[in-house]
């Protein structure tokens, strides 16, 4: 009987043995506990939301960068086109067959004679809008007797031009009183009144990306028509 009591006490003492102590006090053995299904679903949901937000920011940043580069490229093309127009118009002079330097003028087209390729002849040069393209055409004098009935060599010098859709004149003309008189001539009946030409380009590559079109302009005096 005594032996059984001792064995019971030994077994009972082992069952009360501490697994670890905190502040000299026995703590029960920690049990392993995993995440509940609800916790996993909440974590996955938060991860998905963060991923979507980061993805949207990256896509928006890339799109904004592309728009900026497109605008810069469009603006540079517009400036180059306007500068080409200015350089050519400054050379306007009497044609190789004695015609007046200006052949035609309207709000969307300007035609004149100038030596734009540094040869001995003076070409017939035309700038005009064709849809949303700004084009330049050149006809070399040829034939005997000399004439301007030959083939016109045409190039596109600017795209995404929206002057027509925005109802904005590509060309405006002024007489010799400019800039004192800043009111443009009304589609000049007499081409000899023109002394100054203003060219303004409205460029819009993507209407959904920019609030207003890009604006590029220049004012050029026809040197060989100056009165003084």
Describe the structure.
The chain is of the alpha+beta class. It has a domain of 156 residues. 29% of the residues lie in helices and 25% in strands. It has a 5-stranded antiparallel sheet, covered by helices on one side. It is elongated, with a radius of gyration of 41 Å. The termini are far apart. The N terminus is likely disordered.
Percent of residues in helices: 25-40%
Number of helices: 2
End-to-end C-alpha gap: 141 Å
Q: Identify low-pLDDT runs.
A: 1-16
Content of β-strand: 25-35%
Structural class: alpha+beta
CA-based shape: elongated
The mean pLDDT is 83
> What's the alpha carbon Rg, rounded to whole Å?
41 Å
- Topology, number of strands: 10
Order of helices and strands: HEEHEEEEEEEE
The side-by-side strand order for the widest beta sheet comes to 3-4-5-6-7
Largest sheet: 5 strands, antiparallel
Secondary-structure topology with pairs:
Layout: H1 2-15, E1 20-22, E2 25-27, H2 37-89, E3 102-105, E4 109-114, E5 123-130, E6 133-139, E7 153-158, E8 171-174, E9 196-203, E10 214-221
Essential attributes:
three-stranded antiparallel β-sheet; 25% strand; single chain; disordered N terminus; alpha+beta
